[in-house]
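Dear U.,

For the methods section draft, I wanted the exact inputs and outputs in one place so we can describe them consistently. I've listed the two proteins in the order they'll appear in the manuscript figures. Please don't edit the token lines directly; just add comments below if something needs changing.

First protein:
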Amino acid sequence: MLRSIISVTAVLMLACGPASYAQESRPAPLAVSVPTYQNVNCPIMGKPSSTSLFVDTPKGRIYTCCPPCNAKIRKDPDFAHKAAYPKIAKIENKVCPITGNAIPARSPTLVLQGYEFSVCSKECVHAAQNNSQIVLTKLLNPEVRDLANTTCPLTGKKVENNAFVLIGNDLVHLSSTRCFEVVLRSPEETLRKAKASAAPIKNVEADTKPADLKQKTN
């Protein structure tokens, strides 16, 4: 009787073992997201802001509660930024988020959406302002890898400023923010195409590894 029980158990282990192993080793689905660094309240009305309503300014993206507030922000972006992001957090980054080069001494600094950081040259200041959401994503998420693709993997068109998606830890540039819904349907295929067309990722020396993200709130 004992031998029969052992035999049955062995058969069950053989039958269930491979299936269980296959299930456990199945890769997890890729996370797809577009990070936002939103001011909680509209700097004009004081009401809760919406992620779909915003103005891009030299100091980054400022979210609002209604379209009429957008025009007021454009008239005085400095005042709006101060109201939207009253505290400035300093990021002691050692790598430029635009070029990937080391930050030299006396490098330019700028503030975007309540974060102060450095870039390696004056030319990078304007580039950072035009791509504030991408820059903040790279600075605030040290595991993010920018594929630096210049062609959208979905449309084949040239990528646009601030149009991007995170697939896992890979930052993929897009030709339009409207492409996000398409990425959700096929993230693996989107990532494969983006990697195939991406520029070679620059190797950064050990002493200039991703940003030290200690933040000092003023």
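Second protein (the one for the lower panel):
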Amino acid sequence: MTFDLEKLVRPNILRLRPYSSARGEFAGEAEVFLDANENAFASPAGDGLNRYPDPLQKELKARVSELNRLATENIFIGNGSDEAIDLLFRIFCEPGRDNCIICPPTYGMYKVSADINDVAVKEVRLTADFQLDVSAVLNAVDEDTKLIFICSPNNPTGNLMRREDVIEIARAFNGIVVIDEAYIHFADTDSFTKELDRFPNLIVLQTFSKAWGMAGLRLGLAFADAAIIDLMNRVKPPYNVSGIAQRAVLEAIGKTDKMQAWVHETLRERSRLAGALEQFDLVTRIFPTDANFVLIRTSDANAIYRHLIDAGIVVRDRSNVELCEGSLRITVGTPEENSRLLDALASFGAIEPEAGN
């Protein structure tokens, strides 16, 4: 099957003349900037904040390129992965006509973004062991299906999708397959960025929010064929990534060893946490995980959740999510935080209810 990108793109996007930002209209170096109507003096919040940031994040993309061994033309940088997800709906899906496929239980923003963009959502449930039902996914495809979202490692289940299943879908689907790798740094596997040369319909999402510890900056990545990245750059707001975020991530990339040390400690603590949770009668199952969290099935998720809240500990109650009934999702914290969690779980049921309750 021949992949034809232009047939997938909304005609108005193909015709779109993107906004031309002041900082994108010249090449070379300059010292005096009188082009963008900025405050020429300063900002009370700090040096350099009176100037608009680089709209295409060229310096940052060069470093990301080195880190991931991909050309800068294959890299999009956005305001979190959520911006990239939203852009894909706006580029490929005609509101009220086209549809996408998601595989619940999975990351909730795929459906939210689809709903915002008036794009129908086809839900193909994962199997009982949280893997892709490949035949069901491909059978759900029709002539108006433009996007298939696959989260691997998956949120909220934590597991990797079988690589051969993802490749089978990418090979068979004449549309865009989006692989969300927000948790890839915690998994013992290669990124699907290694498959971009083979599959021009793949888009791989990653983030600086998880392993890199910069969730507060809201900076996400998309890796794809250069033609897809060009479309994303056309549609995005001109200055979508702040100068503060760009500088902070540039500094962080120079400290990869620190990020890797945090990942190793997270994995050690994940193992310790899972082993300790196995000892509790209230935990009926611990699901395999390749992420920085564990999903556990419990005897009474709602009561345990409320008990932890009372102890000042917040976890995620996923008991209302299909296939995750009775489950809590627990992020792996610091050793001290994990010990506090285990102590709180040990006290569950040991506290007498107040009279009248």
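Candidate sentences for the figure legend, describing the second protein: The two ends are 64 Å apart (CA to CA). Residues 256-277 form the longest helix (22 residues).

Thanks,
Y.
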